[in-house]
Amino acid sequence: MTRFKRILLKLSGESLMGEQGYGIDTKRLSDYANQIAELQAMGVQVAIVIGGGNIFRGLSGASKGFDRVKGDQMGMLATVINSLALSSALEAINCDVRVLTAIRMEPIGEIYASHKAIEYLKQGKVVIISCGTGNPFFTTDTGSALRAVEIGADVFLKGTRVDGVYTADPEKDSSASKYNDITFDEIYRQNLKVMDLTATALCRENNMPVYVFNMDIVGNVKRVVTGEEIGTYVHV
């Protein structure tokens, strides 16, 4: 039995680097593909948004002299590269998948529309949604929150490099303690860096729960979907 029927899974572009420091680690990509295919085989409807930080981040590009709008557009294209890589890995293990793009670029992918994504999900296809919101100044976290709401997902699963939400950054503060459960209001009050404020507000206003967990541990996404108490559950 699964806890969620339809999910929006946000994958970190930086996690796709694995140990390489840049680009796409094929082992990490294969691990992700196998876990996603397992969810599909269980009957879970899976939509995915991938970041592009392993290739280019618009905000960091702007700090180095790139025009912010152009930098964000470059970041959107980086998410397309990652989406195509994941779709290729899924197809290699006979997983039916569609890539949708927020910016028109056929034949690389179909232009995104919520009704199209929902129809593919109902058909049992994995849907990868790239280019974030299609607009500059918005992160892929915000893009993920928006798509989760648009497709009527049961939950927004935020796969990260840490195993949940902490009182401080656990990679910098060894005394940080983990929350098993926290509200959006508490995140605001404590100024916790779970997602950017736009994404957090969008989820709160639309009662879209978020599960933050460590995607780099193989099997974790299945544990979350089947109801194991791992990660951090964020809710209204």
Describe the structure in your own words.
There is one protein chain. 38% of the residues lie in helices and 19% in strands. The chain is of the alpha/beta class and 236 residues long. It has a single domain (6-235), classed as Acetylglutamate kinase-like (Carbamate kinase). Helix 1 crosses helix 3 (68-92) and helix 5 (140-150) packs parallel to helix 7. The two termini are 25 Å apart. The model has no long low-confidence stretch (mean pLDDT 95).
Summed up, the domain count is 1
Q: CATH class, please?
A: Alpha Beta
How many DSSP E strands? 11
In terms of structural class, how would the helical and strand content be classed? alpha/beta
What fraction, in percent, of the residue positions are helical?
25-40%
CATH structural architecture? 3-Layer(aba) Sandwich
Q: Give me the side-by-side strand order of the main sheet.
A: 4-3-5-2-1-6-10-11-9
CATH-defined topology: Carbamate kinase
**Count, helices:** 8
Identify the CATH homologous superfamily: Acetylglutamate kinase-like
Mean pLDDT: 95
Could you name the ranges where pLDDT drops below 50 across 5 or more consecutive residues?
none
Overall geometric form: globular
Helix-strand sequence: EHEHHEEHEHEEEEHHEHE
**Termini separation:** 25 Å
